[in-house]
Inverse folding.
């Protein structure tokens, strides 16, 4: 409508002179989210680089400023509270510019699961119960608590939580012999339905509080007897594509999970040749094709975990993206990020098929950022 002398009149429609009928206006097309981004900036969206939670480390600052890395992770432990953490995250988010990230905002993540796995504490942060204790709450209560915890993270400048854990441990008796999950009470329970119910409640609360969640660790760490952070060659010999642990992810995807972390264990009944996050069989064939996941796939840490020490940092990054991962997590040792980013850029410059993988991953990451 056009306003004319205080009256509203219809704007004239373009006319097709042949028929005398109005010509439909062209349908606007969605802008390409990668338009205007250099290859280096597109690659940068595929990395999340760690810094100590108490300070913006030089290697992390350099990764964002000089290597165009688009996401950061607060690692270790901080008891300084929300205001001090917000000062750290501000130093990182202020690095965003047309030159560094192409103007795209950072995902600022941490591990705020509860219990012994709570990176941020102190004034302004709740003391979160363990996931096992959270699993004893009704879903509505947990969702409300999670919304409070998300508000605390948001106040500190954190917009992504690498949680919840949905790993399925066979029984409470088996928890003690499961170093990565059961030993720290990181599980919601021991039945798939209970895990899904509480994971959904946790995600609902976090989302309502403005924080992205990452469901982990696909296809499950509940059946292993080694910790991939400290042990090489950790292998699950029982999980297959039809296992209940995989079924949990099918339910999580159906209920709207937007990001999933893939583990660094080996699954001999799915693909015995490589850690899951380096395996196209696990990431593409199982997670993407069979389970139908279209969101963001993230690796577990590839910078300091014993499970990946046999590969060079460059190879770890290239293998993860080749397998179908979207974000390479470099949380423990940010000093290796430059080598990883440079290797991915170099491969994309010479191999068009790999560059297409990079672009597809970057689009998924940017879509996730745009969903808030």
């Amino acid at each position: 409508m056009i306003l004319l002398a205080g009256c509203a009149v219809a704007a004239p429609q373009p006319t097709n002179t042949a028929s005398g009928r109005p010509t439909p206006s062209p349908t606007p097309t969605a802008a390409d989210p990668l338009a205007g981004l250099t290859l280096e900036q597109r690659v940068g969206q595929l990395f999340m680089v760690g810094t100590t939670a108490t300070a913006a480390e030089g290697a992390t600052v350099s990764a964002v400023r000089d290597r165009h890395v688009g996401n950061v992770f607060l690692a270790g432990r901080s008891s300084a509270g929300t205001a001090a953490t917000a000062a750290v995250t501000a130093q990182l988010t202020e690095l965003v510019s047309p030159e560094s990230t192409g103007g795209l905002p950072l995902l600022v993540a941490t591990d705020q699961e509860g219990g012994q796995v709570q990176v941020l504490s102190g004034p302004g942060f709740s003391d979160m119960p363990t996931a096992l204790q959270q699993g004893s709450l009704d879903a509505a209560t947990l969702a409300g608590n999670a919304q409070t915890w998300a508000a605390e993270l948001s106040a500190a400048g954190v917009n992504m939580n690498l949680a919840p854990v949905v790993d399925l441990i066979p029984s409470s008796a088996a928890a003690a012999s499961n170093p990565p999950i059961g030993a720290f009470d990181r599980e919601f329970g021991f039945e798939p339905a209970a895990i899904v119910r509480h994971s959904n409640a946790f995600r609902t609360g976090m989302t309502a509080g403005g924080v992205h969640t990452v469901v982990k660790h696909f296809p499950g760490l509940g059946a292993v007897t080694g910790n991939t952070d400290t042990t090489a060659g950790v292998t699950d010999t029982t999980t297959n594509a039809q296992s209940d642990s995989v079924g949990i992810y099918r339910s999580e995807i159906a209920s709207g999970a937007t990001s999933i972390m893939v583990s660094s264990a080996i699954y001999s009944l799915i693909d015995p040749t490589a850690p899951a996050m380096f395996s196209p069989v696990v990431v593409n064939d199982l997670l993407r094709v069979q389970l139908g996941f279209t969101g963001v796939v993230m690796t577990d840490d590839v910078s300091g975990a014993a499970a990946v020490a046999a590969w060079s940092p460059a190879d770890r990054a290239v293998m993860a993206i080749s397998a179908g991962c979207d974000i390479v997590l470099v949380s423990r040792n940010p000093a290796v990020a430059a080598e990883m980013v440079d290797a991915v850029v170099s491969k994309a410059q010479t191999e068009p098929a790999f560059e297409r993988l990079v672009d597809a991953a970057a689009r998924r990451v940017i879509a996730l950022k745009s969903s808030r």
In short: Confidence is low (pLDDT under 50) at residues 1-19. The chain is about 35% helix and 15% strand. Residues 39-370 form a domain with the TIM Barrel fold (CATH 3.20.20.300). The longest strand covers residues 47-52.
